[in-house]
Amino acid sequence: AFGLRGTKLHARLAGGAAPVELVQASGDLVPATWHHVAVRAGEGKLALFLDGIEVGSTPADLVEVAGTLTI
């Protein structure tokens, strides 16, 4: 899940041993302004990006998924 808590980004990854929650650690979203937001899960962590800059991360026990992903 991905969303907002006030002016902070929020991400939640369910799966594995327990859900991992992450709230943006730095910066604020400015209302009525466009932003590029992204979440990356890999390298043992869940990371949150705002306008291309990592604004928070937390360790996450991620299950490796192999194979082809078609969207």
Proportion of residues in extended strands: over 45%
Count every beta strand, where a strand is a DSSP E run of 2 or more residues.
6
Gyration radius, to the nearest Å?
Answer: 13 Å
Indicate the structural class: mainly beta
Largest sheet: 3 strands, antiparallel
The DSSP helix count reads 0
Widest sheet, order of strands: 1-2-3
Helices and strands, in order, run as EEEEEE
Q: Report low-confidence residues grouped into runs of 5 or more.
A: none
N- to C-terminal separation?
18 Å
Shape: globular
| Helix fraction bin | under 10%
Give the rounded overall mean pLDDT. Answer: 81
Describe the 3D structure.
With 71 residues, this protein is an all-beta fold. 0% of the residues lie in helices and 46% in strands. It contains no helices and six strands. The strands form two sheets. Strands 1-2-3 form a three-stranded antiparallel β-sheet, with no helix packed on it. A three-stranded antiparallel β-sheet has the order 4-5-6, with no helix packed on it.
Features:
three-stranded antiparallel beta sheet, 71 residues, mainly beta, 0% helix
Question: Would you summarize the structure shown here?
Answer:
The protein is built from no helices and 6 strands.
Please render the helix and strand layout as text.
Elements: E1 2-5, E2 8-13, E3 20-23, E4 37-42, E5 45-50, E6 53-59
Antiparallel strand pairs: 1-2, 2-3, 4-5, 5-6
